[in-house]
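Researcher: Go.
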Amino acid sequence: MVKQFSAELFGTMVLVLFGCGAAVLGPAPFDQLAVALAFGFAIVAMAYGIGPISGCHVNPAVSLGVFVAGRMSGKEMLVYWVAQLFGALLGAFLLSLIAKTGTASLGQNGWGVGVQGGYPLQAALIFEIVATAIFVVVILGVTGPKGEAPFAGIAIGITLAVIHIVGIQVTGVSVNPARSFGPALLVGGQALGQLWLFIVAPLVGAAIAGLLFRLRVLDPDA
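Model: Structure:
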């Protein structure tokens, strides 16, 4: 599992550095499309770069969905989780060293007054659950036995970009507990206080997606 651990750590670091970096280091005014594409393209790059090694989950929710679908063991999932959390923290730390704002702003997720579009908790919770479920369904479908493997990275990256285009104003878009964990741990304050939602909601959404495949609701041979 050493290679898989290293790949997941590296891939998650790149996702946070590039995705959150586009939000923090990009030109003013804030360019929502640029941030969405940065996250999407980062996933495409890592899918082809580390996909052959670890599958390029770079997301605890994705690993949970794969586990629930019966495609990896619980032990493997936990190793992936540790690697992803450390990778996200490393990515956020590197970004803090580059950004003029230091740890004051690292593309952290949030909701409520003064955050993104000011959407309430209910909207944030629903969006993160539904968006993660959609994201993981795409991943499980395109990487399945009858999926279009050569185009998997492109499909997954496009899906993540579209999710960001739709949801950046709602939560800044997590659909990935690790992506939220790294910045929140360094920024602290409200970001850390709201982190629970960006852990719980994506995991719920991923579990739903995994069950749809585990129960063969979305199985092409069922």
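Model: The domain at 2-214 is CATH 1.20.1080.10 (Glycerol uptake facilitator protein).
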